[in-house]
Request: fold
Amino acid sequence: MTFTAAVVGLGYWGPNLARNLAGSGCFELAALCERDPSRLERAGRAYPAARRHADLGSLLDASAPDLVAIATPVASHRELAIQALEAGCHVLVEKPMALDSAEAEEMRAVARAAGRHIFVDHVFLFTPAVREIRRRIQDGDLGELLYIDATRINLGLFQPDVDVIWDLGCHDVSILEFVLGREPASVRCLASSHNPSGFTDVAYVHLEYERGLAAHLHLSWLSPVKVRRMIFTGRRQSLIYDELDPAERIKLYDYGVEFDERDIEARAQMLVRYRKGSILAPALPVDEALAVEMRHIGKVLAGDEEPISPAETGVAVIRVLEAARRSALGGGGPLSPRSSSRG
Ligand SMILES: NC(=O)c1ccc[n+]([C@@H]2O[C@H](COP(=O)([O-])OP(=O)(O)OC[C@H]3O[C@@H](n4cnc5c(N)ncnc54)[C@H](O)[C@@H]3O)[C@@H](O)[C@H]2O)c1
Reply:
């Protein structure tokens, strides 16, 4: 089954959506929308059959596609998504879904009332590496998870409308929700700003889950080096995910520390056994995440799959980010992501 699609916003990320929609085999790229004439012209040359529009209203008036993919700055997501949903389209909206949880929940409610899907482009959920991490955790390969340490830092692209928690943190939070299958019970954050806009550009976010699991996220737009790494420490094995190492994105360490809890004398002396076994780097498919995602969306629209990153996921991620921002403003105390919702 083939569906029609349009892409709104053809700056940095939008052309990637256009290329993957056009190449998916599930979508015909019917229209392009960009308010900057030179960008519209450049993107249009690659897809001569696609209609070109300077605004979403004229695109929808001409003919409403099945799917509108929105890759504009975050501040415009709510308005454009609601406009497309009310015209009867399904929506793929870029991450982060919205500026706050009230906007995200409104978008979800409009989609529900219209009987349409919102897909949030949490693109890492479609990478072979993150799918492998989820499988390994859920199959129990790591044993009990003890803690997670994530670093996502570089000399960042400062955004006009969101801070580093929104821009980078949404990747880690969406990955954690996907691989753990649960939301944090509380969120704390320490943050600082070193730029004239006052937006946070360095943040340390601490997520606490039930049963003692914690995840710590280091986010920065000010680091001289680029790091994209997550360490999942388990009682049985640990897993290191390095997004920047294409040859060995995932490594499983059969390493650990064992305490003999039954032997009273050993316990009193804190006798520790270090286990250092082998390191395994599993082979991963080389699929492009956006290509996997577009085929998945096509299958959802055909009724063959359930959405992996629906509006509910987008809302849950925004709630965690919002709790982090509020915690930072209040000095770093713990907040429940559930209570940060206005809805
Ligand atoms: N999933 C990812 O990994 C990923 C990566 C990069 C960016 N993004 C997201 O994609 C979105 C866009 O980011 P970007 O870096 O491409 O921004 P960008 O500024 O490079 O491009 C945005 C484009 O949208 C156009 N635009 C703005 N409002 C419009 C409107 N109402 N109608 C038509 N065109 C409009 C602008 O002219 C611009 O060309 C953001 O939400 C960002 O967070 C996601």
